Amino acid sequence: MRLPSTKLLAGTLAGTLLVAASAAAQDRSDWPESFTVGTASQGGTYFVYGSGWANLIADELGLSGGGEVTGGPNQNLALVHTGDLALGLTTMGPAAEALAGESPLAPGVPMDNVCALFPMYETPFSITTLADSGIESIADIPDGASIGFGPAASTSDTYFPAILEELGVNFERRNGGWNDLGGQLQDGLIDVIAFAAGIPIPAVSQLEVQTDINIIEFTEEEQAQVLEAFPVSPFMIPASTYQTLEEDARAVSMWNFTIAGCDLPEDFVYEITKLSMENNDKMMDIHRSAATSVPENIQYNTVLPFHPGAVRWYEENGYEIPDDLKL
């Protein structure tokens, strides 16, 4: 048998690579030239996670893209729905409300052009005060205390006031970015910050370096009462999260997912999902909460349909997407 020459093999290989390269270029013909990821205020986990994820996508896929400061989950849902943002981060509670037309930003408008990509992490609801405030439990929060709930219409601002009202706390409501609220707490302008953000929360980590703080946990009874009244899950903040904690702290949480406009090209979203799900080490370099940004956790989205590009990656890799979560 006559073997093909080295030149012939090289030529065949070069031709194959040229065809593959041409196909790849053709596959990108309908991709956006640039993209933006909706995050939240600076000082929160959404900003760090979302901006880092945007940079990862841009670098690995050779695109122009970045994160954008927004009001958080509710605004991200609205901006992705309208096409003003290609990608964003959201929480399952606001997502369910938006899909049902109950978003506080657009009452009566079902936001049905929003698709899920992959799970991020759980958002614990936690409370921080200065150590010298004398507040060591939720029951210690005095009547009329000024409490910072984060940006207006954020997950924290949507749910935490109602949670504290359920637990009998009377308060004055304040809004602002997490860094700004941290400064106000340190300066004595507010009494408490009620955080709903992935851990470690940058603003809390910064606070405990600069001053002594208390991180307040829910009692077992308070946790059970909140679980009964709201779409949240039990959660324990590991003691290793903050220098201040000496043992795990009881809390409640809500899952976060990345989202995309449902009309984005399937191949584009497939490549983003593939990059994000196959490189957890790079995702954790962005923020350590990405330890749970793994495909096994897609089960925690029971609300939004998955984008067809994401569905293709999951099914190719043995993960089943329920029919009612496919477009």
Describe it.
With 327 residues, the chain is of the alpha/beta class. The chain folds into 2 domains: 34-121 and 256-325, D-Maltodextrin-Binding Protein, domain 2; 123-254, D-Maltodextrin-Binding Protein, domain 2 (3-Layer(aba) Sandwich). The longest helix is centred in the first third of the chain and has 22 residues, at 6-27. The model is unreliable at 1-26 (pLDDT under 50). The chain has helices at residues 6-27, 45-61, 73-82, 92-99, 155-166, 178-186, 202-210, 220-229, 266-277, 280-286, 308-316, and strands at 34-38, 64-68, 87-91, 114-130, 145-148, 171-174, 192-196, 213-216, 233-237, 249-261. The protein starts with 5 loop residues before the first helix and ends in an 11-residue tail after the last helix.
Task: Give structural attributes.
327 residues; D-Maltodextrin-Binding Protein, domain 2; 10-stranded mixed beta sheet
Please render the helix and strand layout as text.
Elements: H1 6-27, E1 34-38, H2 45-61, E2 64-68, H3 73-82, E3 87-91, H4 92-99, E4 114-130, E5 145-148, H5 155-166, E6 171-174, H6 178-186, E7 192-196, H7 202-210, E8 213-216, H8 220-229, E9 233-237, E10 249-261, H9 266-277, H10 280-286, H11 308-316
Parallel strand pairs: 1-2, 1-3, 5-6, 5-7
Antiparallel strand pairs: 3-10, 4-7, 4-8, 4-10, 9-10
Helix pairs in contact: 2-9, 6-7, 9-11
Fraction of residues in β-strands: 15-25%
Low-confidence stretches: 1-26
> If you consult CATH, what is the topology of the largest domain?
D-Maltodextrin-Binding Protein, domain 2
Q: What is the H/E string?
A: HEHEHEHEEHEHEHEHEEHHH
CATH homologous superfamily grouping of the largest domain: Periplasmic binding protein-like II
Q: Please identify the structural class as seen in this structure.
A: alpha/beta
Morphology: globular
Quick check: average pLDDT? Answer: 92
Give the count of structural domains: 2
Q: Biggest sheet: strands, sense, closure?
A: 10 strands, mixed
Number of helical stretches of at least 4 residues? 11
